[in-house]
Every structure is written in C-alpha cells, then in structure tokens.
Automatic annotation (TrEMBL):
Segments forming domain SHSP: 31-143
Pfam family membership, one: HSP20
Lineage: Bacteria, Bacillati, Actinomycetota, Coriobacteriia, Coriobacteriales
Organism: Thermophilibacter gallinarum
Protein name, entry field: Hsp20/alpha crystallin family protein
Family stated for the protein in its record: Belongs to the small heat shock protein (HSP20) family.
Amino acid sequence: MASMIPYDRYSRALRSWPFDEFDRFFDAPFAALSTGNAGFKMNVEDAGTAYVVTAELPGVKREDIDVELNEGRLSVSVEKKESDEEKGKNYLYKESGEWSATRGVFLKDAATTGLTAKLEGGILTVNVPKQDEKANVTKIAID
C-alpha cells in the first residue's frame, strides 16, 4: 500500500516530459477537430425585458457570421475562411485558418421583431426582446 502513487502526482510527473513542446507542435493542427472544442464562447443573459447573447469571435468579419432565430432557437454560425493573400504565404507553422462552428440556445419567449445584433471588438452582441408568453393550455369545461 505504501508503494502506491496517487494518480494526480503520476500525471504531474509525466507533464515534465522533455518533449512536451515537440508533442504540442504536432497536436495543434488537430486541436480544432477534437469534439471537446465548442468553437467559440457564448453567454446568455436574462436582462428582464430582453435576452442579451454575447459571443467571443476575435478576428471574424461581419460577413462570416450568420445569426438566425427560428421558433425560439437562436443560432450563431461562423464560417471563417482564409483570404487569398494568406493562401500565397509559406507558413512553417500556422494555428489560425479555416474553421466553422455553430452554437445555439433555446429562448422560449423570444420575440421575432425588434432583434438587434452588433459586432464590436471581436464581441458579437445580440439583443432578443421577450414577448408575453402565450398560454399553450386551453381549459375545457365538462358538460
């Protein structure tokens, strides 16, 4: 029992592997393909009469973003492509490139009118006004 090493100490010891930087260099191109990567961060705030949705999109142009509200589901889609001038360059290592991602959130009482969106400083801000909830339940009198 005394010879057992807790797992966290074992993993810490492995992190000091001398070739870590070399391994990270080759893992970086595949990081975007991992399933744990959501693509971009998104926050949803209930501001009383409206929802305020913010998405962190640094380096993304306005024309590469698509925001859509469909039956209460707000979707933010980004498709970032390389420009023609970047394609001609001879990179030895490049972490930025073409990628696409979609994030969505369901807002049950979202209004379809009065929506606004603004991209400033790499932050997309979408204001979605709330509408009065319609009663989906109808009481039926029994004769």
